[in-house]
Structures are given as C-alpha cells and as structure tokens.
C-alpha cells in the first residue's frame, strides 16, 4: 500500500514537471517503431519520427492534422517520382522539388503535413529507390507512424483542475478590487498598488489558452462553460478598470452614498457564491431610482460628485449585464428568481 502511494505521488510529480505531451511522445515513438519492426517493415526509425511529429496538444488538432499529413505524404511520393525519376537523385533536384512541393501543400491547405511528408521525400532521396517494394514500405511507415501518433493522442488529460484553480485565482482578485473600490469610495487610507490588474491580465491569457484546449478536446459534447466563463470575466474585468478610472475622478472631499458603497461590498463578497446577477440588477435599479430622488447639486463640486457617482452606477449595471447576457438562457425562467440555480456572479 505504501509503495503504491509513493508510486502514485512520483507519477503525479513526473506529469507536472514533464507534461503529458512529452510523455505521450516518449511512449508513442518507440511503440510505432516496435509495430513497424514486428511487421517486418524496414527503416523503422522513420515511423518513430512521423509519430513524434504527429503528437498534438488537443484532440481537435490531432483530427485536423492526421488527414493532412497522410495526404501530404502521398503527394510527396508522387512529387518524388516525378522529379527524381525524371531529373535524377541530386541535391539540386531535391531543392527544386521542395520549392515546388511546399507551395503546393499550402495551395491545397495541407501545409501541416510539410514536415512529415519531407521525411518521406528524404527517405526516397537517400535510398535512390522507387520500386514497388520500397514505396509499399514507405506507405506502411506512413500508416504506422501517423496512425500510432493519432491513436495515442486521443487520450487527453482533464484540464478541469487547472481551470478551476484559475477560476478561483480570478475570483480572489476580483474580490480584492471590489474591496479596494469600496475603500477608495469611503476615502479610507490604502497602500494598494493595483498589482491585481496586471495579475488578472496574465491569468486571462493563461485561461484563454487552457479553455481553448479544453474546447478542442471535446469530441461529442459542446460544453464550453469554461470558455464562456472566462470570456464573461474578461469583459467584467475591463469594466472594473473603468470603475477604477471613475472613482479616481471623484472629488477628494466627497464620499459616495453609503447604500452604494454597501452594494459594492456585497457585490464583491458574492463573487464566490451562487447569488444571481439578475437579483443584484434589481437591487441596483432601486439604488438608481433612489439616487434620482437626491436633491439637485448646488455647487460645481456637488454636481461633479453626483455625475461621477451616476457614471459608477452605470458601469455597475454594465458589469451585471455581462453576466445576464452571457450566462443566462435566452428564455426567461418560469420559476421565481430566488429559486434559480446560477453559477458564480
């Protein structure tokens, strides 16, 4: 039992340090060579090279490139026959062949197969042979090399854990920004340097790449929840930056209405909860109506303060609208709002 646990921990550490793509390459390459050798195919190293070139970061890319690579290899055999058999096996002919072959693959939109097909072209050039037996051997190598890489690449580890960690990291920084906005509105002393802004930009770049890979790994399903979630958060992040710009314009001696500050505090604390954006939107509408009832400003400073506060309310509404528009169904639910089961605000 103890040995099994140690083995499990060691495997996890290897996965974290090395990466699944590297592990799959290390497994698939000798496997394809062994298959080729067992079938009596010569030059088995070619099968290993083809497999190595076929390992992709996602299932979708694997599907898309497997056919392109196979077609490009067949095209390379045809070009090799036309050039080498007619003009001879020389470096000059090889150079001309590649200058014609590469644009042709681009024209037929199978350029992802350039490197794998070039391996076959170089094989034919080095062996200076174009008989039926040799070409059959190359076809075996193509099928084994690309096929092994494709099959091994069908296994893709779940990215849920990484995406969930990124989600939590984003939410924590949103919470900090909301708290700091609240403190700025209350004119409290703060030494906040706004590091979370730069951190969030990096987190969104990483999340976008992972969410894209997660989406490409979906074969039958259409579950793009992470992609939609981070798209929503990125838009809200831009609005948070606008809120900060607005708060900076607030006159130094003016404080914002306590109800609005309390609402912002509540909004920040709800980042990790299941409260709905629609419920907060209704509360915000009440605040806006109450704000309209405030007596008209008598001085320019009062006017400026009220103008800035209204702009802030508008940005808060846009912030909540992003969630409503992107994460809620188009059809309005028939059950009461308080019974809705929503994901994060």
What descriptors fit this protein?
345 residues, mainly alpha, 13 helices, 74% helix, 0% strand, elongated
Topology, element by element:
Elements (H helix, E strand, L loop, with lengths): L1 H17 L1 H19 L6 H10 L4 H29 L3 H17 L6 H14 L4 H22 L6 H26 L9 H22 L8 H24 L9 H12 L7 H16 L7 H28 L18
Helix pairs in contact: 2-3, 2-7, 3-6, 3-7, 4-5, 4-6, 4-7, 5-6, 8-9, 8-10, 8-11, 9-10, 10-13, 11-12, 12-13
Report the average pLDDT across residues: 81
Give helix % range: over 70%
Largest sheet: none
Find the count of extended strands (DSSP E, 2+ residues): 0
Instruction: Return the string of H and E elements.
Output: HHHHHHHHHHHHH
Shape label: elongated
The value of Rg in angstroms is 30 Å
Share of residues in strands: under 5%
Tally of separate helices? 13
Show unreliable segments.
331-344
Structural class: mainly alpha
Give an overview in words.
It is a single chain. The protein has 13 helices and no strands. 74% of the residues lie in helices and 0% in strands. The chain is elongated. It has helices at residues 2-18, 20-38, 45-54, 59-87, 91-107, 114-127, 132-153, 160-185, 195-216, 225-248, 258-269, 277-292, 300-327. The model is unreliable at 331-344 (pLDDT under 50).
């Amino acid at each position: 039992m103890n040995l099994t646990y140690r083995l499990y921990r060691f495997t996890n550490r290897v996965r974290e340090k090395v990466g699944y793509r590297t592990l799959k390459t290390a497994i698939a390459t000798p496997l394809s060579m062994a298959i080729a050798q067992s079938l009596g195919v010569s030059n088995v190293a070619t099968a290993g090279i083809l497999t190595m070139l076929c390992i992709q970061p996602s299932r979708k890319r694997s599907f898309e490139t497997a056919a392109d690579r196979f077609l490009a290899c067949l095209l390379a055999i045809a070009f090799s026959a036309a050039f080498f058999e007619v003009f001879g096996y020389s470096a000059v002919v090889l150079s001309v062949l590649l200058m014609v072959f590469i644009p042709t693959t681009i024209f037929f939109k199978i350029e992802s197969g350039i490197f794998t097909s070039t391996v076959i072209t170089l094989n034919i050039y080095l062996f200076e042979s174009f008989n039926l037996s040799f070409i059959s051997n190359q076809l075996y190598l193509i099928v084994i090399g690309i096929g092994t890489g494709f099959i091994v690449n069908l296994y893709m580890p779940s990215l849920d854990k990484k995406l969930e960690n990124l989600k939590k990291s984003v939410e924590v920084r949103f919470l900090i920004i909301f708290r700091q906005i609240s403190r700025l509105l209350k004119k409290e002393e703060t030494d906040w340097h706004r590091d979370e802004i730069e951190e969030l930009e990096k987190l969104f770049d990483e999340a976008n790449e992972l969410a894209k890979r997660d989406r490409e790994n979906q074969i039958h399903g259409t579950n793009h929840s992470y992609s939609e979630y981070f798209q929503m958060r990125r838009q809200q992040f831009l609005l948070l930056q606008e809120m900060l710009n607005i708060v900076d314009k607030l006159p130094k001696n003016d404080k914002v209405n306590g109800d609005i500050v309390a609402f912002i505090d509540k909004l920040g604390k709800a980042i990790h909860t299941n409260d709905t954006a629609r419920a907060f939107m209704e509360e915000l509408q009440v605040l806006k109506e109450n704000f309209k009832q405030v007596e008209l400003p008598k001085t320019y400073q009062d006017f400026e303060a009220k103008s800035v506060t209204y702009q802030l309310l508008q940005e808060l509404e846009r912030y909540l609208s992003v969630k409503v528009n992107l994460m809620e169904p188009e059809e309005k639910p028939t059950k009461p709002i308080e019974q809705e089961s929503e994901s994060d605000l």
